[in-house]
């Protein structure tokens, strides 16, 4: 008797996993993204080892994200026109080949900075199509009823990988080097490819709209004030405020004077906070809960990054990384959920490509800005600027929530008047 309520609560929190196709997709992603995080950590470490330049770390981030800026809107049209499962099979296969190429260059001892940048650029092109496809694929796997839970569990898988991937990468970097991380990532893509291959075929009526156009999607997003505001805020907060990752090697090597394992711990600390936030999002949340999450997430992220910037004590650095990670994912996951619950299915690929553009496509500007400021004024100054942008975004959200609350109160009063007079 006593164990029944906890079981029911657990089943509710993981309700999207009752769908077989989503279980296959989610499990494959969990394995694959562990490898992706290992590659991300090792790639930054490799570039810093080859160049010892914060600016080159910023350029690496620029190359990895600028294709999303250039191609994500066009990718959204493709996503709305084709079978999403087949498109994801193609993008994941290309990502496997990219990882294997990088691993081969490092193993052969011929890798040069320009090669790392070129392969980061290739990965960015793949991501421009892969990210909106995966985001818009979720509703085909679980339906609208379990969509918010699927988004939360997807985020939980991503951040579980974010915890374990960097930690394992830190150990491998100290033992077998960057090449081992890249090879593990290449192999990990087989898991998501197998999951996609084993899925039950999805009704083709739910797939493909040959009449989809880019401008129709942009006009649709602009015509919905909640979606428009969420996307514009995401572009500022994510593009300029989320650029801590490119500078973590500087904190590990030059500020705290620690090695690769501590670098992995820093990334893991952000991941643990993000994982807790993602699990928090599996609860049943009202629209006002999601709105409050935006504010709480931006404040937590800004404060965490502000203290992280000036910490010289590793445990405090890790604690502030945890707080920042919690806030950033709470904000991003709530934004994603609110947008997906608002839009029509026929525009989903194009709207999620706009989401990808604002979330990741704005990062090249932020990465170059952070790297350039770190080069001339130091990484703490650059990270502090990111924190200020997040806190400024929180102030704007606070103002908007007050306006919405006052408007809804006024509407409720107006509706109540006829009943009272009647």
UniProtKB/TrEMBL annotation:
<dbReference type="InterPro" id="IPR036259">
    <property type="entry name" value="MFS_trans_sf"/>
</dbReference>
<feature type="transmembrane region" description="Helical">
    <location>
        <begin position="379"/>
        <end position="399"/>
    </location>
</feature>
<feature type="transmembrane region" description="Helical">
    <location>
        <begin position="21"/>
        <end position="42"/>
    </location>
</feature>
<keyword id="KW-1003">Cell membrane</keyword>
<feature type="domain" description="Major facilitator superfamily (MFS) profile">
    <location>
        <begin position="223"/>
        <end position="422"/>
    </location>
</feature>
<dbReference type="GO" id="GO:0005886">
    <property type="term" value="C:plasma membrane"/>
</dbReference>
<dbReference type="GO" id="GO:0022857">
    <property type="term" value="F:transmembrane transporter activity"/>
</dbReference>
<keyword id="KW-1133">Transmembrane helix</keyword>
<feature type="transmembrane region" description="Helical">
    <location>
        <begin position="151"/>
        <end position="176"/>
    </location>
</feature>
<feature type="transmembrane region" description="Helical">
    <location>
        <begin position="54"/>
        <end position="75"/>
    </location>
</feature>
<keyword id="KW-0472">Membrane</keyword>
<dbReference type="InterPro" id="IPR020846">
    <property type="entry name" value="MFS_dom"/>
</dbReference>
<feature type="transmembrane region" description="Helical">
    <location>
        <begin position="316"/>
        <end position="333"/>
    </location>
</feature>
<feature type="transmembrane region" description="Helical">
    <location>
        <begin position="354"/>
        <end position="373"/>
    </location>
</feature>
<keyword id="KW-0813">Transport</keyword>
<feature type="transmembrane region" description="Helical">
    <location>
        <begin position="182"/>
        <end position="200"/>
    </location>
</feature>
<protein>
    <submittedName>
        <fullName>MFS transporter</fullName>
    </submittedName>
</protein>
<dbReference type="Pfam" id="PF05977">
    <property type="entry name" value="MFS_3"/>
</dbReference>
<keyword id="KW-0812">Transmembrane</keyword>
<feature type="transmembrane region" description="Helical">
    <location>
        <begin position="263"/>
        <end position="281"/>
    </location>
</feature>
<feature type="transmembrane region" description="Helical">
    <location>
        <begin position="230"/>
        <end position="251"/>
    </location>
</feature>
<dbReference type="InterPro" id="IPR010290">
    <property type="entry name" value="TM_effector"/>
</dbReference>
């Amino acid at each position: 008797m006593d164990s029944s309520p906890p079981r029911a609560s657990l089943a509710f929190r993981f309700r999207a996993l009752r769908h077989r196709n989503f279980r296959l997709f989610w499990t494959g992603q969990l394995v694959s993204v562990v490898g992706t995080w290992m590659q991300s950590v090792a790639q930054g470490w490799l570039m810093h080892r080859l160049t010892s330049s914060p600016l080159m770390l910023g350029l690496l981030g620029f190359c990895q994200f600028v294709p999303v800026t250039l191609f994500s809107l066009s990718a959204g049209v493709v996503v709305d026109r084709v079978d999403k499962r087949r498109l994801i099979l193609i993008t994941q296969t290309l990502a496997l080949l990219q990882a294997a190429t990088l691993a081969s260059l490092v193993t052969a001892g011929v890798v040069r900075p320009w090669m790392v940048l070129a392969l980061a650029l290739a990965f960015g092109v793949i991501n421009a199509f892969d990210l909106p496809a995966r985001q818009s694929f979720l509703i085909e796997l679980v339906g609208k009823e379990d969509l918010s839970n699927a988004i939360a569990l997807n985020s939980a898988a991503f951040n579980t990988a974010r915890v374990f991937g960097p930690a394992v990468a830190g150990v491998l970097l100290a033992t077998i080097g960057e090449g081992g991380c890249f090879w593990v990532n290449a192999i990990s893509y087989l898991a998501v490819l197998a999951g996609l291959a084993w899925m039950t075929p999805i009704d083709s009526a739910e797939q493909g709209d040959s009449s989809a156009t880019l401008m129709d999607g942009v006009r649709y997003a602009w015509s919905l004030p909640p979606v428009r505001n969420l996307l514009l805020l995401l572009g500022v907060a994510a593009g300029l405020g989320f650029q801590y990752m490119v500078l973590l090697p500087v904190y590990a090597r030059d500020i705290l004077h620690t090695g690769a394992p501590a670098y992995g711990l820093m990334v893991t600390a952000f991941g643990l906070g993000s994982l807790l936030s993602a699990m928090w999002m599996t609860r049943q949340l009202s629209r006002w809960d999601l709105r409050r999450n935006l504010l709480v997430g931006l404040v937590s992220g800004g404060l965490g990054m502000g203290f992280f910037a000036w910490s010289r004590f590793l445990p405090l650095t890790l604690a502030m990384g945890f707080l920042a990670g919690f806030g950033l994912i709470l904000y991003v996951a709530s934004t994603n959920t609110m947008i997906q619950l608002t839009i029509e299915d026929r525009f989903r690929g194009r709207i999620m490509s706009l989401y990808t553009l604002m979330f990741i496509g704005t990062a090249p500007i932020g990465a170059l800005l952070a790297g350039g400021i770190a080069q001339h004024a130091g990484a703490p100054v650059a990270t502090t600027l990111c924190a200020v942008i997040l806190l400024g975004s929180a102030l704007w959200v606070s103002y908007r929530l007050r306006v919405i609350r006052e408007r809804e109160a006024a509407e409720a009063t107006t509706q109540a008047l006829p009943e009272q007079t009647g």
